[in-house]
Amino acid sequence: MKNNKGACGLHCIKINHIGVTIGEQVIVDDVNVHIHCGKLSFIIGKNGAGKSTLLKAILDEIPHTGTIEFRAHEDGKIEHINIGYVPQHINIDRHTPTSVYDLIAGYHTKRPVFLRKTKKIYEDMKDQLRMFGAEDLIDKQVGKLSGGEIQRVLLSMAIMDDPNLLILDEPVSGIDKKGMDLFYKNVEELITEYDLAILLVSHDLEYVAKYADEVILLDKKILKRGTAKEVFQSKEFASVFGSLNYDIDKLRKKEGEKTL
């Protein structure tokens, strides 16, 4: 991925009137979201709120109504959107002999993985993994990686195709606090360095409060959008989650950062 030394802020992903109905049951109802490059947007909501279904619709994996556009603000032109994706879970046989190199090569190159490795492809993959502190994992068996290690490999794979939008579906589920902190450090670096938007589903409200540029509260439809403070102090949030027991401004007070 090209290093842009800061997001341009000149592009917007427009999610227009997305809806998903299964039989007579409405799962997602007329969702409209504009996501700008260089921003980290969180989707929150209770189980069954339609969060993962919305992501599948955006990825065009399930039938849905509505459209998704990638617009350039300079001229309003609609461009092709490239989406990277990190799922919540990946099914891996603990005894598989597949290495991280094999996994990435099989997904991103046309070269059969059983052929001899080329130094260039190997080093390119290692450089990509290095961004997430995962370069030492390249020769390890995928089935023997920890949850945090798998997550870093998947995140590296997701941005190899230079996406405009990176979708993360609870990617740190089951990972310890050290792994969570490393993950969000990696996400912040992506936001700072590259021209892409990130849409992340999370159930960990403390991390949402700490890192979100925008929060989208979903219950089939969007109940509330805004900064973490705006959403978390809203009546809509209280109706879903109740009151908070931590100080949002305190969480956001990092060196050189203004409170919300």
Largest sheet: 6 strands, mixed
The 3D shape can be described as globular
Give helix % range. 25-40%
Mean pLDDT: 82
Which residue ranges are poorly predicted, with pLDDT under 50 across at least 5 consecutive positions? 1-8, 255-260
- Write down the secondary-structure element order: EEEHEEEHHHEHEHEEHHH
Residue share in β-strands: 25-35%
Q: Ends: how far apart?
A: 31 Å
Strands, count? 10
Strand order of the largest sheet: 6-7-8-3-9-10
Supply Rg. 19 Å
Structural class, judged by helices and strands?
Answer: alpha/beta
DSSP helical segment count: 9
Can you put this structure into words, describing what you see?
There is one protein chain. With 260 residues, the protein is α/β, with parallel strands linked by helices. Helices cover 32% and strands 25% of the residues. The strands form two sheets. Strands 6-7-8-3-9-10 form a six-stranded mixed beta sheet, sandwiched between helices. The longest helix has 17 residues. The radius of gyration is 19 Å and the shape is globular. It starts with 10 loop residues before the first strand and ends in an 8-residue tail after the last helix.
